[in-house]
Amino acid sequence: MNLKGKRLLVIGGSSGIGLAVARTAAEQGAALLIVGRNAEKLEDIAEALGKDGTSVDAKALDASSPEALAQLAAEMGEVDHLVSTVGGAMGGGFLSNSEETVRGAIDEKFFVALRIAQALTPALRDGGSVTLTSGAGGRPHNASGAIVGNAAIRMLVEGLAVELAPRVRANAVAPTWMDTPLWRGVPRADVEATKAHFAKQIPLLRTATVDEVAQAYLFAITNGFLNGQTLVIDGGLGLVS
């Protein structure tokens, strides 16, 4: 399977992994619908990706909002493949965080992914796919709500894979920690320290690039027999931690 002539919806496509997925898909001939929160940024991205003739639509909205997703579903038309890189992060265990914080982390991951699947998978054409974002690395005692959310997304795609079959496939990608715009609000020195910490733990002695992780999403999209799976992209971290 290739993406030439296919229409790809990327939620979270204005930066980081999502933008890398959109760029790579465009290089393979896909038409794009990119969703993000920053309208000005989306306009710049649409202009840049469209310079080579790629068809690029962009919509600014909050993908965590059921109302915004309903509006998107009503306006976007049919698409072949849906990718969502939406998610959050948190640190600390169950006892060191408030219930509100833990619930918030689970909501940012699982319940937002569930809303996206419920609202948008009906618009997927036969033979299409949905690829969500989970996560790898961390343990319940140091990333409590995020770990629960990641596990729930794994279960979500297992359920969707059966419920949507045979018309549409469902999978997830689970990267471990990497340097992306998700950490834009964190002091750069702290980000570099975290990067060095993970680079020492990962057997490959480095963290992933966004392009390496984006390739996992493209594999999930284009492999027509991959269904109900979570692709862990962690450089082997799970083998040693």
What is the general shape? globular
Indicate the CATH class. Answer: Alpha Beta
Q: Tell me the structural class.
A: alpha/beta
What is the makeup of the main sheet?
7 strands, parallel
Uncertain runs with pLDDT below 50, 5 residues or more?
A: none
Order of helices and strands: EHEHEHEHEHEHHEH
What fold name stands as the CATH topology?
Answer: Rossmann fold
Write a structural description.
By secondary structure, this protein is α/β, with parallel strands linked by helices. The chain has one domain (about 5-230): Rossmann fold (3-Layer(aba) Sandwich), CATH 3.40.50. It is built from 8 helices and 7 strands, in the order βαβαβαβαβαβααβα. It has helices spanning about 15-25, 40-50, 65-75, 100-120, 145-165, 190-200, 210-220, 235-240, and strands at about 5-10, 30-35, 55-60, 80-85, 125-135, 170-175, 230-235. The chain has a 7-stranded parallel β-sheet with strand order 3-2-1-4-5-6-7, sandwiched between helices. Helix 1 (about 15-25) crosses helix 7 (about 210-220), helix 3 (about 65-75) packs parallel to helix 4 (about 100-120) and helix 4 runs parallel beside helix 5.
Salient structural properties:
241 residues; alpha/beta; Rossmann fold; 7 strands
Layout: helices, strands, pairs:
Blueprint: E1 7-11, H1 16-27, E2 31-36, H2 39-49, E3 56-60, H3 66-75, E4 79-84, H4 99-120, E5 124-133, H5 144-163, E6 168-175, H6 188-201, H7 210-222, E7 230-233, H8 237-240
Parallel strand pairs: 1-2, 1-4, 2-3, 4-5, 5-6, 6-7
